[in-house]
Amino acid sequence: MTRPRTAALIVAAGRGLRAGTVVAKQYTPIAGRAMLAHAHAAFAAHPLIDEVVTVIADGQQELARVALGPAARIVIGGALRRDSVAIGMAALNPAIERVLVHDAARPFVPVEVIDRVLCALDEADGAVPTLPVADTLTRGDGALVRRDDLHRIQTPQGFGRAILASAHAAWPIDEDASDDAQMVRRLGGRVALVQGDIMLDKVTYPQDFAAAEARLTWETRSAMGFDVHRLESGEELWLGGILIPHDKGLSGHSDADVALHAITDALLGTIAAGDIGTHFPPSDPQWRGASSDRFLAHAASLIADRGGRIDFVDLTLMCEEPKIGPHRAAMTARIAEIIHLHPDRVSLKATTTERLGFTGRGEGIAAQAIATVSLPGQPR
Ligand code: MG
What we know:
CATH topology of the largest domain: Spore Coat Polysaccharide Biosynthesis Protein SpsA, Chain A
Bound molecules: magnesium ion
Oligomer: single chain
């Protein structure tokens, strides 16, 4: 039996105004990336999800492109949530048999919840993640509400595509629906309850953003970079992102800024993303004479794309000449500027090699860097 083709439909067409953020809340960053991008990445990475379609509000196309990248499939939603779901459903590949409908206000989607919903769909028409209600509940008159039969409903909610489409078609035209399970139930469909996860808690109010970030685990990683370039007459000396007056300069395919190259490799190392040559091959003529700040900025952007942040960069330059001390502050400031870091978080040291070796003979400059970054881990 071939497995059913499955799509994730992320509903992000709300205005998100209660969050009090400058942009609609689904585009407000959490751990360095738009809230919407977290859920999108979780579905896109799941091996049993074949297609991800995101339903957005009209006018937010550019925000969505920036948040999700140019390859993401987006469609413009309608006035009501149910309209947006129906529009998204219509945009799915015809071969799709199952749909997971997810609210963008729940940024972190544990893979285990996706698995549970999909597994329950083997037996039921729909599956909904829920959590028990822990708090004591009362009505306005103080009467206690029995909570043993109450559940907090979460998303993603999974359905067979056909029954969800029928449920939407049968729903009264002038009535909105806050979730799809109630629509499928009204049609007589059987909806299973599966265990939800506190990672799926909704982000609604301003204080929810900090709470959501706090739910993430953070992983600290450090990695090294090392580089050497030859000193030659007739070259400009670019070092640490600044031009230094000197009788020799570093030679190489790019501007040969050995300091920026070492830091670039250290940053790439923290996300196991190869080295500078992987991203900017020396064989590619477009990098001839290129300013190395582009390489460094690219490495920093790859970390930001992962939702990570750079905590610290430490660099050691090895050479007899030029003297580094007079240029230290300018180099530190420039490096910090390129990777959007406070200068306190960039350390620059220099040493001679006691006139030993190629650095001691003034034939070249060597640089060694170590970078420390924090990356958001998988939801617990
Ligand atoms: Mg190099």
